[in-house]
Amino acid sequence: MSNNYLCISDEVSCALRTGRPVVALESTIISHGMPYPQNVSTALEVEQVVRDGGAVPATIAILGGRLTVGCSSEQIDYLGRQGQRVVKCSRRDLPVVVSQGMDGATTVATTMMIASMAGISVFATGGIGGVHRGAETTMDISADLEELSQTPVMVVCAGPKAILDLPLTMEYLETKGVPVIGYQTDVLPAFYTRRSSCRVDYRLDSAQDIASAFVCQRRMGLSTGMLVTNPVPEEYAMDDAVINGAIEKALCEAEEHGIHGKQITPFLLAKITELTSGQSLATNIRLVKNNALLAAHIACLL
Ligand code: PSU
Ligand code: MN
Q: Which residue numbers are catalytic?
């Protein structure tokens, strides 16, 4: 599908036309997920990792109301400097952000949507949103999960973010028919760490097996996405006690300050970075790069 709001960079549109592999990257992680200037340096380094893996990076954002696919380094720098001044844009935000000509940082949900409009089928990020702890009363369930159920894009991540309720997130994905693949793991990775208490649906040990499952899903006409979970490399994983302590503390502070809705995830990520003296940020950066490389390898096989 193509539409008048899409603005695809020359490099990305040329790659798509000539059938070269492309990997989509999101921008909420830039504007809301990491502090400046690490957000900008990480976004640029992640693009380089995709290139080193043999694919063309397409960082996606909304700039002046245009659905921009393939942001330039200047645009990435702008998104990083603007930070929270850019709207965190999920599916429900799109109509107004676009019609008003605003800037929007795209979440996993909107990055999937725009990637799909542009004809890109592989997307790498850090961690997806999911079912929040306490969702049985708050009903806070990320639109990322809904998007995975209806948009045929593969999302390569290091698991749902550990601030969430992982067992409930897995239940939700099962209900919605989203396959959760573990890359070289039987256990669902928990973003900052390699292991959670949940199992993945299927363990696949090669990029080729993952690519084949995705091709098969598309050929059968299933319009669901696919979630590929790639554990953070052992050497960059956090200590369980350290990260769990920081998460508990951050959740308490969020509650005290009455933080909720779209603010909760950026608040928790920033608070956890503070509580771990930057360790969690360093791990976050490493795991995104690790995901970008796997996504590039898979994209090359599609
Ligand atoms: N991965 C990261 N950092 C992030 C995100 C992902 O390493 O900040 C973002 C993604 O854009 C994801 C969003 O869609 O967090 C989830 O927000 P929410 O829980 O409000 O749906
Ligand atoms: Mn939410």
A: 26, 161
User: Are 131 and 19 found together in one domain?
Assistant: no
End-to-end CA distance of the chain: 19
- Starting from the CA of residue 84, give the closest ligand: 1
Strand partners, 295: none
Q: How many domains does the chain have?
A: 2
What CATH number is given to the structural domain containing 68?
3.40.1790.10
If you measure from the C-alpha of residue 272 to the centroid of ligand 2, how many angstroms do you get, rounded to a whole number? 18
Give the DSSP letter string of 85-151.
GSEEE-GGGHHHHHHTT--EEE-HHHHHHHHHHHT--EEE-S-B--BBTTHHHH--B-HHHHHHHHS
Provide the domain limits for residue 2. 1-120
What residue owns the CA closest to ligand 1's atom 16? 129
Query: How many Å apart are CA 26 and CA 55, to the nearest integer?
Result: 16
pLDDT tens-digit series, residues 254-301: 999 999 999 999 999 999 999 999 999 999 999 999 999 999 999 999
**In this structure, which residue's CA is closest to atom 7 in ligand 1?**
126
- Of 120, 136, 153, which residue constitutes the final position of a domain? 120
Which ligand 1 atom lies nearest to the CA of residue 132? Answer: 19
- How much is the average pLDDT of 222-238? 97
pLDDT per position as a tens digit, 112-153: 999 999 999 999 999 999 999 999 999 999 999 999 999 999
Ligand 1 pocket test: pick from 36, 42, 128, 145 the residue with the most ligand atoms within 8 Å of its Cβ.
128
Q: Ligand 1 pocket, 104 CB below 6 A? A: no
